[in-house]
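Q: Given only this backbone (75 positions), what sequence would you predict?
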């Protein structure tokens, strides 16, 4: 089985913190593939990553459009 590798190209933002864990938006290359936007939980002290989601430039652009159109009110 091949070794799992990743490289954080750009740390864009920490969205929240919970104890030692942070929810971050980064640009990451996994296994030397083209980099993608990545949203996931991280514990950098222990070198661990949680489950997350990767997004292409097109997907993050579409998400930005949707978020800009939302009125952020929770009932």
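A: Predicted residues:
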């Amino acid at each position: 089985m091949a070794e799992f590798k990743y490289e954080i190209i750009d740390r864009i933002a920490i969205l929240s913190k919970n104890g030692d864990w942070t929810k971050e938006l980064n640009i990451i290359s996994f296994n030397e593939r083209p980099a993608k936007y990545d949203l996931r939980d991280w514990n950098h002290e222990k070198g661990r990553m949680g489950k997350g989601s990767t997004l292409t430039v097109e997907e993050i652009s579409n998400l930005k459009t949707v978020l800009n159109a939302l009125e952020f009110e929770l009932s």
